[in-house]
Amino acid sequence: MTSVFKYRGGDWATVKRDLRSLSRNELYAAPFASLNDPFESVVVIDRNSFEIGGLVLGWAAGGKLDQGKKASSKLEDALGEFVKFTRGIGIYSLSKSATDELLWAHYANSHQGFCVEFDLENLLDYKLEAEEILSVDYSLRPPTLSMVELMASQKSQGKLLQKLVATKSRRWNYEEEIRVCVGNPGLKEYDFRALRAIYFGARCSYRLIRLAMRLLRGRGISYYQMQLVSESYNLEAIAIDDEFPNAAPYRERLAPVDDGIPYLDEKTKPFQKELSVAIEMARREPYCERVRDAYLSGSKGTPENPVFYVTYDRSDGLPRNVFYSLQEIRRHVLYA
Which of 25, 138, 141, 184 has the CA that lies 20 to 30 A from 288? Predict the structure, then answer.
């Protein structure tokens, strides 16, 4: 599990808006052009590489200089269009740290706000699974872009995106930022289980703490409050009790199963109980709408130690395969 953190704070209306988004399992990817650093996407164009590239392309076209110049100009125009495109993508900024005093001061209303911990892999496992994840590079100088990188971006845009949307001045390195890049800005839904913990600031009010716990009750979230470490400039997270420990589990469900599932044959009959338990486990998944299939995996496990798969319709309308090992099933409470 990779833990990443999001700091939030502001006036009471802003805090309530952010908590409401958390209760709806939504995050807001801001337009790249709206981020708080005016130096975002500042780059140095290696025009010499474009001129040389133009000459090479002109030579390939028959050695005509004017064709080379036109090719060079088109490549620069293409780069300009890509830069323009990046300014319209959505960015969800996260940090690798929950204990940086500057982040608490700058992004959590002077320690009066809160910080959310996400499991990054789980965060991307629902509707954000196809998005680009970039760790910000911190540099003394703006990055240089060449024709070679532009041409390479036709196969993979990762390196070009890194320079355009995930490179900042070294003065920002305390943020240890990770960026989730999405196609369009706006609200995006995530699997609620990605939200692992909330850290309340050292100056956070009890009113905010209780409201957060009430809105997020039943989700198994851990709660902490930051505390100043004596005789140091450090912060530490102290666990605090959930005020709603007996709340009903969030999104608890028992999805229906298609008729004829599981199908029993000579391979599955020896594991009939295990296969049935695998189905029961899957239909209790919070985003399972209907179980469609269940069998032994052909790519995982062995005949003596099989892995079972269950296919179900997910809440976003996409099919989902989940895999369970023999040991995992036999340890489950439903196997008893």
Answer: 184
